[in-house]
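Thread: Newbie trying to understand structure tokens

Hi all, I'm a second-year student working on a class project, and my supervisor (Dr. K.) asked me to get a predicted structure for one chain before our next meeting. I've only ever worked with sequences, so writing a 3D structure as a token string is new to me. If someone could post the tokens and maybe explain what I'm looking at, I'd be very grateful. Here's the chain:
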Amino acid sequence: MIEVNRKGEVWVFAEQHGGKLEDTPLELLGKGRELAEELGVKLAAVLMGENVKELAKKLVRYGAQKVYLAEHKLLKDYQTNSYARVIYELIHKYEPQIVLYGATVTGRDLAPRIASAIKAGLTADCTDLQIGDHKTTKNGELHKNLLFQVRPAFGGNIIATIINYDRWPQMATVREGVMILPEPNVSLKGEIIEESVQPSSEDLPLRIITQRHRQKKVDLKAARVIVAGGAGVGSKDNFKLIYDLANTLGAAPAATRAAVDLGFIDKDHQVGQTGTTVRPNLYIAIGISGAIQHQAGMSQSQKIVAINSDPEAPIFQVAHYKIVGDLNNVVPKMIKAIKEKS
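---
Reply by user tm_fold:
Sure, no problem. This is what the structure looks like when written as tokens:
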């Protein structure tokens, strides 16, 4: 077990594939910088791969004050054992107090392996991170400047705050899109520390022959306007109304998990706790009841317009503009009015 280091750095695992950084670690650098400044420590990124030094410079522009760079031909492609061993060794060497991972396929695979190896706690799928103090109920001992790891629990019906005061580093995976992506700043300076690592071929039980990546059909995180439909739309055929309004506005079509599960639209369009978190300028929710799981992914939109036949629908609690009515009547009228104005 790592000894508690109250002055340790805040780390972000800089996930990359094929020489391209994922968005999630860049988002985490923005939040990580806030946490590090509050703790009075440095923010660092851990970057692994082969010939990825140029990516370290990008991490600095996004806020990393240090980048621990581990390059080796055996680290070219992600495999659990090799990556976990390197990070395990770096944690023992530098003793960070916080290590953050994206709740991506890779992060969800890697973080538990490391947590198990160093016997530390791990909170999965966080939606917020804060620094605070905690007094234990057993002996009243006060622990200052702990990482408060906030995440939905019990199917999203409550928000849980999880702390770890005695086994460090404090570790969490964070959902994609919940942290605001910072603007890169070319004036920022950072130290790139090249680590000498020697992963073993024994850590690579698989030989990767080829990789194929399917691009998402829609980039919801980048959309400025989103038109989303829920189970209340009624059918896959009726979901055409969502596409028609989206096309009229130049918006991205989206949906709730319920609509996706019913086969109305592809999962790439899903917004919510188990989908994409979005912050568009305008979010139009059509036939969406507004379950807390969906609100978790869209409630930070600048303007929310909700259309629902139920005046008591929870979506109206977060909507800025509320339309109570049958979507089959309302949406065509909206499309007509927009086209006439255009």
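A couple of things are worth pointing out once you decode it. The first strand starts at residue 10 and ends at 14. The chain has two domains: 10-203, 220-341. Feel free to ask follow-ups in this thread.
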